[in-house]
Task: inverse folding
């Protein structure tokens, strides 16, 4: 199995590589409670065809990477309250720790510099890579993510509710129903432009569930997000060439989150797509691969 131990954080990470090993490296970082397999194989292949050595990995506490067993996260309500009064709750690990994990993947693979691409929480993680490890980055792409500012519109209740809902059972059909409910509530809305393919989505959910089911990691990752807070001022110092991609129909991280990210980073370019929600639809693979590839090549 392709695993490595990050030399800087000591975390065991499961990863995959695609494309020419001599090509410029592109590191893909996934979001909250999401395995690396939520990067569609088709998008990974398209980015490899764009001329990159594409590396995707499971964040700590998800998929086949190391689990932080026994570590308890504070409840979101308690965490938010304590942060407001100036006594932040202790968290099992920080979002910066997760950014350091990604840099550790590069270290373990002997890669000096890479293009980094993050989706949702992964976008926050690559933002922190640009803040703390600028010398290791050639470019950054932040997808359907945000600055963390509390002034921005919050997620639709059904979207955050579906994502954080507890599992009602561990049998296969219950797990698949849970996964499909998340997709229906946070993903791209069913439309003539983006028709919902029930069979395809069920197949993907089933494959992911058979790969790994680990709901205990989500509260710890969420605690890391809440702990990091507002990155707006920190992003003002970023000089890494940045592309921000965001869907105009995203119910989880709404469009103003992407707009605020682009506004906070000097020189960042914002691309928004009508009808796109909080997922990576197959129909958008050619467009996303082209945008990301062109940006990474300096286009």
Result:
């Amino acid at each position: 199995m392709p695993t490595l131990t990050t030399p800087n954080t000591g975390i065991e990470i499961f990863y995959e590589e695609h494309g020419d090993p001599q090509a410029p490296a592109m590191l893909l970082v996934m979001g909250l409670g999401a395995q690396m397999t939520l990067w569609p194989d088709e998008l990974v292949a398209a980015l490899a065809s764009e001329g990159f050595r594409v590396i995707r990995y499971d964040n700590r506490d998800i998929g086949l990477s190391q689990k932080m067993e026994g570590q308890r996260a504070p409840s979101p309500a308690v965490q938010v309250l304590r942060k407001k009064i100036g006594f932040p709750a202790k968290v099992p690990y920080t979002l910066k720790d997760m950014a350091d994990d990604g840099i550790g993947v590069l270290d373990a693979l002997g890669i000096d510099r890479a293009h980094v691409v993050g989706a949702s929480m992964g976008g926050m993680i690559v933002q922190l890579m640009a803040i703390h490890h600028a010398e290791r980055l050639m470019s950054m792409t932040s997808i359907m993510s945000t600055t963390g500012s509390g002034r921005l519109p919050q997620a639709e209740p059904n979207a955050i509710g579906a994502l954080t809902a507890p599992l009602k059972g561990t049998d296969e059909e219950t797990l698949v129903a849970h996964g499909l409910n998340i997709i229906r509530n946070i993903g791209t809305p069913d439309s003539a432009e983006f028709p919902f393919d029930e069979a395809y989505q069920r197949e993907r959910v089933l494959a992911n569930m058979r790969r790994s089911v680990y709901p205990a990691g989500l509260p710890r990752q969420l605690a890391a997000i809440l702990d990091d807070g507002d990155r707006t001022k920190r992003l003002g110092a970023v000089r890494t060439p940045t592309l921000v991609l965001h869907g105009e129909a995203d119910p989880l991280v709404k469009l103003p989150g992407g707009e605020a990210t682009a506004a906070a980073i000097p020189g960042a370019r914002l691309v928004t797509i009508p009808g796109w929600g909080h997922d990576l639809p197959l129909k958008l693979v050619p467009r996303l691969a082209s945008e990301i590839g062109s940006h990474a090549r300096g286009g």
Residues 63 and 213 are 7 Å apart (CA to CA). The chain has eleven helices and eight strands. Strands lie at 3-5, 12-18, 25-29, 53-57, 114-119, 137-143, 242-247, 269-273.
